[in-house]
Amino acid sequence: MFGRAFTNISLAALASIVACVNLPTDGEPSFSLTRVTDAQKFVVTLKPLTEPVAINQIHSWRIKLTTASGAPVTKAVFYVGGGMPDHGHGFPTYPRVTEQLGDGTYLLEGMKFSMHGRWEIKFAIQAADVSDMVTFNTMVALPATGK
Description:
Blueprint: H1 2-17, E1 34-36, E2 42-48, E3 59-67, E4 77-84, E5 89-90, E6 96-102, E7 105-111, E8 117-127, E9 130-140
Antiparallel strand pairs: 1-2, 2-3, 3-7, 4-5, 4-8, 6-7, 8-9
């Protein structure tokens, strides 16, 4: 019951901010893979398991979740959303957090970028009685040619 209610609330919240991007004061999106959540409840770090992240391939990422003071957060629930805001579409897959690896680290699987450009990765996070949201930006480059 909690999971379904959280998902419904998270979906509504994500839908209401889908056009919002974490922008620094100069108007450019931040591409940092460590971010403080919107209400400053958590610090989240993303790391792809393989780099560079390839276009049109399924890949996985590690998520490190801590409190604002740096303590690892365990037993968190994540809703994952996002896509290409400049193109108006979401992910071609349904990425999700599948496993808690220990010490506040989680496995995000099912990520796929279908084209080059800027992508957003959005998380709604619930841990105990604390919830918050965060948006990451990542730039997917065209594959290098061997000329």
